[in-house]
């Protein structure tokens, strides 16, 4: 595996992700921001934040599989959430958990969560981009 995830001492241990990823693979992969579209470009989970998070994560996994990788190869995630407030955290974690169960992984790479006013399509509530390293 090209990615090792760690929580160095002196930094808080956060259950949703690890603070640091160490990449040792040979191929650097940048996944464009994924929204809650299915393969036909239809929005999944209109108005449902958790469902859209789940679909975004599944789309990241699909993109990775297309280049010979998996969620285990993700070095960093960036999540853009429309109108983010801390009370949405349970819905974010629910969507991540559902995607993780479907994928059989524990996606905990370092991540950045950014609240934004809008995305390119008003139906989209969240967008997830990833950087991965593959052996």
UniProtKB/TrEMBL annotation:
UniProt-listed InterPro entries: RutC-like_sf, YjgF/YER057c/UK114
The record's Pfam families line, in alphabetical order, gives:
Ribonuc_L-PSP (PF01042)
Superkingdom is Bacteria
Annotated protein name in UniProt = YjgF protein
């Amino acid at each position: 595996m090209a990615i090792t995830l760690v929580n160095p001492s002196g930094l808080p241990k956060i259950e949703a992700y690890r603070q640091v990823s160490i990449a040792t693979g040979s191929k650097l992969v940048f996944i464009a921001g994924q929204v809650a579209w299915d393969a036909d470009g239809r929005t999944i989970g209109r108005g449902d934040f958790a469902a859209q998070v789940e679909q975004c994560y599944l789309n990241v996994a699909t993109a990775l599989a297309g280049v010979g990788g998996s969620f285990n190869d993700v070095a960093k995630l960036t999540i853009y959430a429309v109108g983010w407030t801390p009370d949405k955290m349970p819905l974010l974690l629910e969507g991540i958990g559902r995607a993780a169960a479907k994928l059989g992984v524990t996606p905990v790479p370092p991540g950045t969560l950014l609240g934004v006013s809008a995305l390119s399509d008003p139906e989209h509530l969240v967008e997830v981009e990833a950087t991965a390293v593959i052996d």
